[in-house]
């Protein structure tokens, strides 16, 4: 199985049959038993009060940013961050959240000094503080 991406994953015949035969309901009304069970399992497994199913990692990343930032906020991320390089500017386009990319170290980590230096002061002439 290759679960790198929602566009790379190829479901097996058994997976297709499970999807076709799964009991379904309207998730907006909270009556989809399959989604409810998946969300409950994910929340319990990871020690959270609740979880939410998203259809892709891109959608999950955007929702995460929008849950933590307000329109006009800025978020710090590495220049190699997936949400910065490969998600078509969704945070800026759909969330009105400006990315501030920071150069990654050779091992992929971010230097705390560079992160601290990139945080803008609370000034009405600048973007809102980094979230």
From TrEMBL:
Named cofactor requirement(s): pyridoxal 5'-phosphate
Keyword field: Lyase, Pyridoxal phosphate
Boundaries of every Aromatic amino acid beta-eliminating lyase/threonine aldolase domain copy: 2-125
Pfam families: Beta_elim_lyase
UniProt-listed Enzyme Commission number(s): 4.1.2.48
Enzyme class: lyase
Keyword Transferase: no
Alphabetical list of InterPro entries matching this protein: ArAA_b-elim_lyase/Thr_aldolase, PyrdxlP-dep_Trfase, PyrdxlP-dep_Trfase_major
GO molecular function per UniProt: lyase activity
Highest taxon in the source lineage: Bacteria
Entry's family note: Belongs to the threonine aldolase family.
Oligomer and partners: Homotetramer.
Protein name: Low-specificity L-threonine aldolase
């Amino acid at each position: 199985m290759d679960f790198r991406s929602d566009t790379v994953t190829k479901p097996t015949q058994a997976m297709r049959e499970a999807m076709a035969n799964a009991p379904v309901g309207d998730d907006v009304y909270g009556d989809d038993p399959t989604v409810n069970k998946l969300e409950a399992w994910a929340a319990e497994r990871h020690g959270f009060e609740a979880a939410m199913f998203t259809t892709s990692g891109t959608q999950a990343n955007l929702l995460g940013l929008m849950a933590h930032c307000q329109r006009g906020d800025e978020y710090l991320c590495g220049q190699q961050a997936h949400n910065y390089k490969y998600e078509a500017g969704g945070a800026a386009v759909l969330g009105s959240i400006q990315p501030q990319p920071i150069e990654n170290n050779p091992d992929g980590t971010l230097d705390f000094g560079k992160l601290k230096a990139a945080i803008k002061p609370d000034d009405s002439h600048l973007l809102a503080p980094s979230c």
